[in-house]
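Narrative summary of target 7.
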Amino acid sequence: MGIKFGTDGWRAIISQDFTFENVRIASQAVADHFKAKDAVFAIGYDWRFLSEKYAELVAEVLAGNGIKVLLSDKAIPTPLVSFSIKNKKLSGGLMLSASHNPPYYNGLKIKAPYAGTADEGITRSVEALLGKNPVQSMEFKKGIESGMIALSDFKKDYMKFAKSYIDLKCLKNAKVNVLIDCMHGVGDGYIPEMLKGTKIKITQMRTGRDALFGGVNPEPIPKNLEASFSAMKDKKEKYGICIVNDGDADRIGAVIPGGKFMGAGQIMALLLLHFIEDRKWKGGVVKTVSNTTLIDLIAKKYDLKLYETPVGFKYICRLMLDKDILIGGEESGGIGVKGYMPERDGMLLGALLIEMMAYRKKGILEILKDVEKEYGAFKYQRIDMDYSDEKKKKLMEMLKTNPPKQVCGKDVKEIKSFDGHKFIMGDNSWLILRLSGTEPILRIYAEASSEKTALSYLDFGKKLALSM
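Modeled conformation, tokenized:
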């Protein structure tokens, strides 16, 4: 069937494995897992090719299994599905989206009753139920007429909450010139609406539906942001910051004046400082193994409990449910915050980053300069390589049994192998090689005090991979 749930749902190539038949089969398995008396599910969809049709198919299957469906009346960002689960106390939710994957992918994200990414217990159960029972379905029109399927506005309640979470009083008279790169995703228009009534000047780019996302993957990483870099180099416009959201707006990246990228690790570190120093909040901190060491140093300074997890927001989600967590995030742009829900939200995070600038009455460059002066420089780099299954096994086995003792002439002082293999040097610089949980690729990450060193680590990792 080609249905496999990775770190954040099932994603596959449209018409190859992501077919109408397989969507129905997957939906039946979800229904079999969650089926219960009075169960109600939220279903949302993004702007990808056929997402609205897939959402209807999913609604038909759930309704056919006696699960009442609240189907979004429009394409929406993923966080709105999770928020609806929490706000309405629903049984769970499904989002039709392949997030940041290439345009020819679509996907199905399962959101659990706790309003976050489904954990492995749920996804393994759903996978075990694939094809076990015949698909039961209720024709869409009949579902509407019977009340088993109801169209719902998920945006109104979400916006009410977002405006209460952000300090609009602080932002009211703040003068920041902001650029929002929507990457042709469904986050289009949300941050301007959140900040309506303030003096924040907002310009949006790459707006509107484009199922090809302008010819790039809708992921906020440097290779996809040439348009943002160019805009932020424009001395005439003088944008203070560019907030970038991915295709379904649950991830964030940013571009700073001069056209340089600010990754999610830096953003998470800044928001951690904002919560501690400006909002005076406390709590634990969760980071994935591939996130910046800067977070460790901030947590140490303020004596905050730090947790480190494998890549995948579901691990962060679990800790946010079980512990008092101030902030938790991945290097890939997914960050969750206290007082919300155990879920990512690139739009809310963007507004919070603007809020930090308003609190401190400083531009983002000045804030970053202050952080570097206090904690040192952290230069982060990443590359993705297409990598065959045969080579994957050989590489991971080699790194386990015969790991390098040095990286670019520096002795390896520690190795972490709970998600890929992370080689940490004496100066806390590091290199990671790990396999993607959602795509057939090898990811190589590095961090060092200089960009030159970080890039040399990537070259070292790439040579290791190519030696297989």
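The first strand starts at residue 5 and ends at 6.
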